[in-house]
Each structure stands twice: as structure tokens, then as C-alpha cells.
Amino acid sequence: NAGVTQTPKFQVLKTGQSMTLQCAQDMNHEYMSWYRQDPGMGLRLIHYSVGAGITDQGEVPNGYNVSRSTTEDFPLRLLSAAPSQTSVYFCASSSRASGTGQTQYFGPGTRLLVL
Amino acid sequence: GQQVMQIPQYQHVQEGEDFTTYCNSSTTLSNIQWYKQRPGGHPVFLIQLVKSGEVKKQKRLTFQFGEAKKNSSLHITATQTTDVGTYFCAGQWGAQKLVFGQGTRLTINP
Q1: What is the distance in angstroms between the Cα of A4 and the nearest Cα belonging to chain B?
Q2: A75 in reach of chain B (CB within 8 A)
Q3: What is the spatial distance between Cα A44 and Cα A61, in angstroms, rounded to a whole number?
Q4: Among residues A42, A100, B87, B95, which one has the fewest Cβ atoms lying within 10 Å of its Cβ?
């Protein structure tokens, strides 16, 4: 199993540009989430999904869109990039299996710089 | 929203010294998880604590969950250079999403 994969690894954008961060998992996990990591801020939840066709907002959703058309894929779209979106983005997946809580399996991350 | 406060933010130790990081919630947690992130890497799950007063050990790492299920700690005995990284706790309240603490970045002087 590849686990959770993310592309690209690095990206530089200009203010106002749009892009999609890709995330895929091959563990048949129901839950998928997007986090951003900024220095001193820990991991903050952007959007999450509890299954195909179902998404919801997390703590910092503004400026981002998501969709979940399949169990495997959960792309994150930046509609109009802003310098404040410079961050490291992690995708994570977890199983809804009873008794295991929501242990998160993280992808390797995408480092985004918005100029 | 719910928050988990984690301290300290940074800790620098000499190799062989002990290290402890603490997490606190103002309300009772359902469970708490701990993750480790190596420099340049991604968070990796270490352990989950569910029961009041629970103590779990992984080699030199000891994890505790408070009696009131509002606080937790991670203690590393006799640190090694391989312990370098950022340690995160993540709390959960019922069926709500995990909320991560700010993390404690551990650096070690060999």
C-alpha cells in the first residue's frame, strides 16, 4: 500500500492564481481531511469528508474548496491564492472502525509559497 | 471551539536528559492521541489514550492521561538524537473532529 499520497510536493504561486492540491489514499478509509501547518500554530483543519459525496468545513475553510467524488481522492482547491495561504498542507485519512478513534494517517505534505 | 493547549512550545535538552510535554483541555476529553513529526516530515501516530488515569509505555516513551481526562503528558527518558522532532497531542470530544495542540519542538544537543 502506498498509504496517503500528495502532489505536488512543492508549488510557487502568484497572488490570484488558482490551483488544486491532490490527495489520494489506498486504504479504503472513509474519513479524509486537509490540514495546514504554520509555525507555532500546530495543525489546523481546513475541510474534511466522512465519505464520498460528503464534505464539511473545519476550523479555517475560507479560500479553499473541496469535493469527494470517490473514496480514494480528496482534492483541495485554492480559488484565488493569497500570501496568507503560504503554508505546508497535509492530507490525512482515517478509518471509521469502531474503537480506534480517528487515528490520522498523514501524507507527505505539499509546501506552498504564494508570492 | 474546543482547544488543546500544549506546553512548552520549544525544548532543548542535552542527549541523555529527560523530556516532557504537556497537553491540557478545559473540558473532558473522549480520548487523546499523540503524534511525532520529524523535521521536514509528516506527523506519525504514536498512541491513543482513552481511559481515565491510563498510562502506556513505548520503550523510553511514557504517555499518561489524567484522572479527569482533561490533561495528558508525554515523557521521554534519556533522550537520544533520534527523538528530535515536534510532538503533537490531539484531543477529541465525543464524535467531534480531532483538535491538535500547537506542538512541542524538541531539539537535542549530542
Answers
A1: 11
A2: no
A3: 10
A4: B95
pLDDT of residue A2: 85
**Terminal CA-to-CA distance of chain A, rounded, Å?**
36
B20-73 per-position pLDDT tens digit: 999 999 999 999 999 999 999 999 999 999 999 999 999 999 999 999 999 999
Whether the upstream peptide bond of residue A8 has omega within 30° of 0, thus cis, is yes
Of A85, A94, A40, nearest in space to A65 by CA: A85
**What is the distance in angstroms between the Cα of B101 and the nearest Cα belonging to chain A?**
6
In angstroms, the CA B40 to CA A40 distance is: 15
Question: Which pLDDT tens digit goes with each residue over A26-55?
Answer: 999 999 999 999 987 889 999 999 899 999
How many Cβ atoms are within 10 Å of B76's Cβ, its own excluded?
Answer: 21
Residues A84-93: pLDDT tens digits? 999 999 999 9
CB contact under 8 A, A40 and B9: yes
Q: How many CB pairs under 8 A join A and B?
A: 52
